[in-house]
Each structure stands twice: as structure tokens, then as C-alpha cells.
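Input:
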Amino acid sequence: MPTTPSQYREVAQRIRDRILRDRVYLPGAQLPKEFELAAELGVDRATVNRALRVLAAEGLVYVRRGKGTFVSTLLTPIHRNAAARYRPENRTEGGGRGAFDVEIRRLGLEPKSELTVSRVPAPEVVAKVFGVEPGTEVVARARRMFAGEAPVQIATSYIPVDIAAGTALEEQDSGPGGIVSRFAELGYAQVRMSERLSVRPPADEEANFLKMTPDQRVYEVVHVGWTAEGRPVEVCVHIMPAHLWELEYDWEVPVG
Amino acid sequence: MPTTPSQYREVAQRIRDRILRDRVYLPGAQLPKEFELAAELGVDRATVNRALRVLAAEGLVYVRRGKGTFVSTLLTPIHRNAAARYRPENRTEGGGRGAFDVEIRRLGLEPKSELTVSRVPAPEVVAKVFGVEPGTEVVARARRMFAGEAPVQIATSYIPVDIAAGTALEEQDSGPGGIVSRFAELGYAQVRMSERLSVRPPADEEANFLKMTPDQRVYEVVHVGWTAEGRPVEVCVHIMPAHLWELEYDWEVPVG
DNA sequence: GAGTGGTCTAGACCACAGA
DNA sequence: CTGTGGTCTAGACCACTCG
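Output:
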């Protein structure tokens, strides 16, 4: 509740206006250096620096150390519809048209992702869902995802070894329909899903890969897929820069 | 990607540890003044101030101008299950046991809320959902919600005038089962719901009521209720401090 | 008025990018 | 080696709370 004046916010607002309203600085363009902005706006460089930190935290600009400050090119959020992305027609993952691909192409960008499959000790959250001791070995499918050249998400699926061992779930190429289809073929059809989401500052490693500042925030989405018997068979943890994504959920209301 | 040392982050981490791990500063307790922390940790007061800003942004501490800095008391997030909260058994709102009440009492806190009913020009988002001109008159039910003394949410429902005029939807007390039950009685049973959520810095007015700093973030959840005919009959915009809430969504997966 | 935090300036030094 | 941002310090002044 800053009743205090606050020049740095005024400076931030003026620069924000130049970007969004007056289009003085276009997406991708480099801003004047801090020293110049300071001189032009009649404040100290420290004040401009703080203002730019605010705009960077919002995702409006990004800073490349030693190079300069630039207007972000991804000004429209990426839309993710949780229920829709798991419907069969959106899951033709093997053919290169998975839900993520659709989400990114909708913005006219080129999706890209890198997958690493391995066995790891179950993280705490995952162990809790599976009902095993933390540290129990599970299969991990870690995906690092990009829109164009920009990293936009880390998604790591965890699967109990007794389900995945020796199956397509441990392969690099999960085949047509994505891994949800493989689960079904193995007798673990997922009939119910849940997602629990929170927002927090990025961990160092996350900030590093996602090119985020400590002032920005990530969504942490813990997705769980359940079989008809009520067994959780897949936990997927999604980490997404909060300023880049808009999330949607749809559901039917039970009669009553 | 701060490969730069950064004393202020180290200071923040040391204070964070004292709160979470070593329990030197307990929930509700006042921290030493910035000047003292600075002397003790061997840094300038500006550095301590910046470190505390980081912790305040996370919601771990809060600052009362002129008084001091205190450890937050709400260290466990409030859990909100979107689908569950609209199920009939959780909607006995009139009796003082609505979904929000349950969410807060689960943490051992006392829920409280203030309602203001009025007619207002439709905000842009709302107008778009209803398919009317922005500025068209709609009924607004604005709720400001508290957990104990702490403000935790602003929720404003918008309803087309042709539906709400002269009905219980314009009354202060919406009666048993909450307004969703009233919609059903009026022939507008909501059979499908959607929520679109994003994260952003609080607007000044929001920060003011929710007692937030500009470095914190809010969820903006746009909830829409649809009838079987596909008409959107209610838009509810929820504003929640992101560090206070954890959101959950459950859904069934169509067979295939 | 005393106590506490919020912000601003001025100057200095460091880290990283690129020629 | 130069240019750009990131951070730290020291000192000053302002705003809000409470006695």
C-alpha cells in the first residue's frame, strides 16, 4: 500500500506506456541504456534500474547482461486448456501434433521439445501421491519445451516402475496418442485427472533454464492421472513462467 | 540468472532459514529493525531492506509502515477445489457454510465476508462473455472475503439484468444453496463451468484491500457458468493473493 | 516527537557480452 | 578493452504509527 510517492513506479509506468500504448519501443527492440533513460527522465540510474526490474518481473521486457534491455516478443499469453489437451483428438503426440504443439502453433510459433527418460528417486510430492517412500525408484520422463527459441515449460512425468518397466513408457518415442494411450493399452486407462497448482519464485535451476529473474513467478502444476480403480498411475509436474501462460479448466456440474 | 554474488539474496536466505528452519522468529513475531539486522549481518541497511522486500514478496513476512516487519501467520496456503466447491453438498451458503467457509475453517480460521449488490456497467471481460456491448448494465454481487482479520479474496459475480431483475439474485441474502441454486430455480441451471486463470501484479485498489505489496502477485480467475442451452448466465471474477492460495481442479476423461 | 520502513542519489565496483 | 546492467554503500529525506 504505497501511499509513498515512488518515482520508480512512475518511471516504470512511463516506459510501460511507451511500449504498450505509444509503441515507441516495439517488440524485440532494445531500450535506451539505463544511463540515457535516467538522463532523459531526470532521475538517477538506480531509479531507472529499479523501474526496469519491475517491468522485467512482469515479463514486459527482458535483460541480457552486458548487452542491454529489450522489449519482450511474447506479449500474448500461451493458452492451455487442461481438460481439452487430454482429449483423444488433441493427443496425436507421436505425429508431432500433441497438445503442446497446438498451444504454441496457435500463436504462430514453432514448438520444440527435448525429452530425457531415466529412472530417478521419487521426489517427495510424487512419493506421497503414489503412496511409497520418498526415494523409491520411479521412471521419469523430463521434457523441456520451447516456443521458437524461448524456453516456456519444464514438464516431468513420473511413473511407477512396476507399470513402466520394459514398456513403451520407457521409450524415447512414446508413439501415437502420447503416453496416455500407452497407459490405456497396458490396462491402466486414466479415467480421472486432477491438477493442483500454486505460484512461487523459480528455483535457481528453473530460473536458469527458463531465463527468468528472481522477481518473476512460476506456476507449479501437479497433474495426476487415475485409473477407474482409483490408482494414481502418473504424476506430471509442470513448471511454467506465470507471465507466459493462461490456464483454463472446464467441467460438468453434477445435477442437483 | 544471477551468477552475480548478490548479498541481498544471501541475507534473505539467512532470514528465511531463521523463520522456517530454526524458528528463531515465530509466526506473528516482529523482526529486529532493519538497522539492527544490518549491523548484525554486516551489511548496509539498504541491503537488508531489499532482502526483506524479497521475503515480503513471497508472503513470508509483512511490513507495517512505521511499526516494523513481522512474520506472517498464514504460512499454509488456503486450498480451493473448483469442481468440489460447486457440488450441492458444499453450497449451503445461506446457512453460513458455503464453499469459502469450508476452505477457511479447514485451516482453523474464522471466515468472514461482506457483500455489496448493485448494478454496474459490464467490464470488458464480462461483456465479451455475455456477448453484449461493454458498458451494458449488469447486476454485480461483489464479495470481499477474510480469514480471521486478514483479507484473502475479492469475488465479483456479474449477472445479466434480464435474468436477475426482481429476483433473489438481486437480494443481499441469496438464500440456501447459494446463488447457483437460485439460477436453477429461475430456469437457468448451470450444467457446465469454466475457469480461466492468469497471474499478474495487483491493481492499486486490489493491493490496497488485500494488503499486498507491488512485488506480490494475484490470481485472476474468470469463472463462467453455462446453461444446458450453452448460454453463459454468470461470470465471477476472483482476485486472490497468489501466495495465499493453492487451486485444485478435477475432471473426468472422456473414453477413447 | 520518536521509532520504523520506503525511497532517492551519488559514486564505486563487479560480471558478462562482444569486438 | 569497452559497453551494459547488477549490486553495494553511505547519507539524506520522507511517510506512517503511536504515545
